[in-house]
Amino acid sequence: MTLLLWLSSWSNISVLGVFLTVFTVLVDFMKRRKKWSCYPPGPVSLPFVGTMPYVNYNNPILSFEKFRKKFGNVFSLQNCWTNVVVLNGYNTVKEALVNKSEDFADRPYMPIYEHLGYGHKSEGIVLAKYGHVWKELRKFTLITLRNFGMGKKSLEERVTEEAGFLCSAISSEGGRPFDLHLLVNNAVSNVICTITYGERFEYGDETFKKLLTLFENSLNEEIGLLPELLQVVPILLRIPGLPQMIFRCQKEYIDFTEMLIEKHKETWNPAYTRDFTDAFLKEMAKGNEAEVNGFNRTNLSFVTSDLLAAGSQTTSTTLRWAFLFMLLYPEIQSKVHKEIDKVIGRNRPPTMADQANMPYTNAVIHEVQRCGDIIPMGLPHMTYRDTKLQGFFIPKGTTIITNLTSVLKDETVWKKPNEFYPEHFLNENGEFVRPEAFLPFSAGRRACLGEQLAKMELFIFFTTLMQKFTFVIPEDQPRPREDGHFAFINSPHPYQLQAVPR
Predict the structure, then answer these.
(1) What confidence score (pLDDT) does residue 241 get?
(2) pLDDT band for position 9 (cuts 50, 70, 90)
(3) What is the pLDDT of residues 41-86, one digit of tens each?
(4) I need a labelling partner for 501 at 20 to 30 A (CA). Which of 63, 157, 247, 464 fits?
């Protein structure tokens, strides 16, 4: 009898609990209903998988363009249970990243990196959540990079010296057809390696070649439906050995940067700061205060690998696009040569001071960035709080994708959005102008922190090589493809060229 009464009482409590839960959910739903009625439109979401079957994850921009035509510049997707909003067009992206920068300053958590040590206390800087630790690490990184020459004459001299090494390596090809890929990668990576680790690598260094190849392969590992599914259903990552099997190159890349740090620590002297790694180790030595601000061993690995990745791949890929366009448009290459001969000559190395007197060359470099469209989707953002954008309600915690392709090729801004046309950056008097919609480095609080270094490298490397060589398509080679290969970074397809000394 007592048992029956207990069961009856427990049953009543259970019913009451269910009732209260349902009532609370309904009240919460009614409160949110008005706001969510203004949520951006999008394709019909299917059970469990959401809208994932509608998206081509090998090249999402193609899918985004279709959705944009149907739903407008702000539309929503559903990756399983993850809410995603895609922003398109210059005005939309500017309103979000510039006018409401803090609302869109957060980053979604990335469980696919947990097997590398990524966690709530160690997120690096590029993918770190918006908050105190990110602010401290970003401030420290900017100050330290500035101290080691970013934006100063000393760094310009390093870039100029490396451009000279690159010219020598190209000359050693003896006019034979070759692929510029690894040489340019090595040259650009050496600049950031000097700042980060205090050393550069010879162009024939097999270990360094492996590092560059590992990073490119790791980008390919993160493209496609499976990585996206693991990101939104992270419980699958608990399957033993699965992350290591799928993201093998990713792990090897981090292991390589770990090796550089360990090698570095062997010669570390707290009294003498040689480079960024030394500065970070010195900060870590401050103990608990430093730990609270994110200065720990795992973050050292992530921040330095962030710098190496951000400071090498995007710039080297842009330069590969630049020389591809010079092959495809010899008349533009000829105009660049004439301006270089007029302003600099053929003997003196180019300097950043020359840029102001070279509007056409400057316009060509900017058009390479626009047309090459290196990072089509930027990095994912997340709303830091509930916000409104162009009349739509977007709740806190929504993943935001900025379709930078739609900005760099916005038909309302650019005269010939789908053509290589340097005149986009020249006024009627032939003077250089920069339209506001030129956002290859993104914008707002999460804008690329290496923008100044990238601008310097692009100008000095491109101008130095153009000063010394004429680039032509080898006679036995077909005309290179002008479209790109997407693997988070939009890269040109492999091509060969000949460098004819001028």
Answers:
(1) 85
(2) low
(3) 999 999 999 999 999 988 999 999 999 999 999 999 999 999 999 9
(4) 157
- Going by the annotation, the residues of the binding site for heme are 448
Q: How far apart are CA 152 and CA 324, in angstroms?
A: 30
Cα(127)–Cα(380) distance, rounded to whole angstroms? Answer: 9
Q: How many CB atoms lie within 10 A of CB 291?
A: 13
Q: Which of 217-221, 296-300, 480-484 has the lowest mean pLDDT?
A: 217-221
This prediction's pTM = 0.89
Alpha carbon separation from 388 to 33, 40, 92, 315 (Å, rounded): 15, 10, 12, 34
Angle between helices 181-197 and 313-328 (to 10 degrees): 150
Strands 381-382 and 82-88, bridge-based pairing: unpaired
Q: What are the φ and ψ backbone dihedral angles of 470, each rounded to 5 degrees? A: -110, 130
Q: Other CB atoms closer than 10 Å to residue 457's CB: what's the count?
A: 27
**Domains delineated in the chain:** 52-501 (1.10.630.10)
User: Measured between alpha carbons, how far is 333 from 330 in angstroms, rounded to an integer?
Assistant: 5
Instruction: List the one residue out of 404, 408, 400 whose CA is nearest residue 101.
Output: 400
Residue 387: its H or E element: strand 387-389
Q: Which of 283, 313, 307 has the alpha carbon at shortest distance from 297?
A: 283
CA distances from 219 to 93, 119, 211, 230 (A): 25, 20, 13, 15
- 168-176: long-range contacts (C-beta < 8 A, 24 or more apart)? 169/203, 170/465, 170/468, 170/469, 170/499, 171/468, 171/499, 171/501, 173/499, 175/498, 175/499, 175/500, 175/501, 176/498
**Full DSSP string of 83-142:** EEEEEESHHHHHIIIIITTTTT-B----GGGGGGT-BTTB-TTTSPPSSHHHHHHHHHHH
**395, 78 in Cβ contact below 8 A?**
no
> Other C-beta atoms within 10 Å of 210: how many?
13
**Alpha-carbon gap, residue 14 to 28, rounded angstroms:** 21
Task: For residue 275, give both structure tokens.
Answer: 């480079």
300 secondary structure, DSSP code: H
Euclidean distance between CA atoms 381 and 396, whole angstroms: 11
Q: What is the pLDDT of residues 427-439, one digit of tens each?
A: 999 999 999 999 9
Known binding-site residue numbers: 448
pLDDT tens per residue across span 391-427: 999 999 999 999 999 999 999 999 999 999 999 999 9
State the sign of the Cα–Cα–Cα–Cα dihedral 194, 200, 203, 207.
negative
On the 0-12 / 13-18 / 19+ scale of CB atoms within 10 A, 381 is buried
